[in-house]
Amino acid sequence: MKLRAPVGEEIFDLKAGDIVYVCGEVLTARDKAHARIVEMLEKGIDLPFNLNRAVVYHCGPIISENKVIAAGPTTSDRMSSFVPKIVEKLDAVVFIGKGGFSGKAVEAMKGKAVYLAFTGGAGAFAASKIKNVKGVFWEDLGMAEAVWVLEVENFGPCIVAIDSKGKSIYDEVRKRIIERLRK
């Protein structure tokens, strides 16, 4: 399935295990950007970019002369603590990264967000799907931590790892492992 950003109600039809290719505008954000986003939201300060209906990619891209060289996913679980405060202010959002979320993040996503897993170690391949660097915010955080606005085409394949109902492929794998270990 193709998913065009900004996203709409169609994300609520996605089910854990579905394969998705993303087109349109994607924002990168890592730890420091998530912390700043939450700080600004808590203070009632407008963000310099729109997260509502956005696709947020957990990535610290390597960019040279306005061209993306590598853009592999980073581990999303580090951002789990920020997710509840971010999604409560939004109608819909898509997160892309590797490894999924834990704790209250999955519960907070219900009816608000989906999580797409992208293969780790595929930074050059991911970069090949980025057609344009549209802008950058918070350069004071450094290249990897700044929020980059990227135009992507057929970014994927991504797997719906956590759907908007809270179903997680990671939970399914854990259950199977536990069942097999008990045998």
UniProtKB/TrEMBL annotation:
Keywords: Lyase. The keyword Plastid does not apply. Gene3D superfamilies: Fe-S hydro-lyase, tartrate dehydratase beta-type, catalytic domain. It comes from the Archaea. InterPro entries: Fe-S_hydro-lyase_TtdB-typ_cat, Fe-S_hydroAse_TtdB_cat_sf. Residues 7-172 form the Fe-S hydro-lyase tartrate dehydratase beta-type catalytic domain. GO terms for molecular function: hydro-lyase activity. Belongs to the class-I fumarase family. This is Fumarate hydratase.
